[in-house]
UniProtKB/TrEMBL annotation:
Every Transcription regulator PadR C-terminal domain range: 89-173
Protein's recorded name: PadR family transcriptional regulator
Domain of life from the UniProt record: Bacteria
Location of the Transcription regulator PadR N-terminal domain: 8-76
Family matches, as InterPro entries: Tscrpt_reg_PadR_C, Tscrpt_reg_PadR_N, WH-like_DNA-bd_sf, WH_DNA-bd_sf
Species of the source: Paenibacillus barcinonensis
Length: 188
């Protein structure tokens, strides 16, 4: 089992879903394509971690709905107690920022503006996701609580990224002094 498999199991503890629905639900947290998800679902079904049923649709092709089994829940609970690995950062933007010393100012501003636009779109995206979570599920212990706090994390990360882009723009414009804008760990 890989990490994506566990994420799919976790989503299926909330509600029965099709492979396509699972792909949409996992996207805010983990980049995955159809070509990754469907083989995992098949493998987990063969290992009796999932059960499935076909749903007939009149205007679309029939769809396969998946549900987690007791064996799948047990496997998920076993994974939940294992140590979490360190996050992986792979961002082309960061690599380009490393090279700004050789770029002309216009290049730096262009990639900053592109990233600002991306962060603004992410903010809208996470605000939309947040608005779709029923208010009565915004409590500790609800099945949607994990989604809520992760959506909030995504929103806060995007807002912080936008603030960082604005700070760098102020540096480029000479409107901010080059100093560390963040508190030290002892100040937090």
């Amino acid at each position: 089992m890989n990490i994506l498999s566990y994420g799919l199991l976790g989503l299926l503890t909330r509600e029965e879903s099709s492979g396509y629905d699972l792909m949409l639900k996992i996207q805010p947290h983990w980049q995955a394509k159809h070509s990754q998800i469907y083989p995992l679902l098949s493998k987990m079904e063969n290992n009796e971690l999932l059960a499935s049923r076909w749903v007939q649709q009149s205007d679309k092709p029939d769809k396969k709905m998946y549900a987690v089994t007791d064996k799948g829940i047990q496997k998920l609970l076993e994974w939940m107690i294992t140590p979490v690995t360190a996050p992986v950062t792979r961002d082309e933007f960061n690599l380009r920022i490393l090279c700004v010393g050789i770029a002309e100012d216009g290049s730096m501003r262009r990639i900053l503006n592109e990233r600002k636009s991306w962060f603004m779109e992410r903010i809208r995206y996470f605000e939309d996701l947040k608005s779709r979570i029923p208010q009565d599920n915004l409590r500790v212990g609800s099945r949607e609580f994990g989604s809520y706090i992760l959506v909030q994390k995504g929103l806060m990360n995007a807002q912080t990224g936008l603030e960082w882009c604005n700070w760098v723009t102020q540096l480029l414009d000479g409107q901010a002094a080059i100093q560390d804008p963040t508190p030290s760990i002892s100040e937090i």
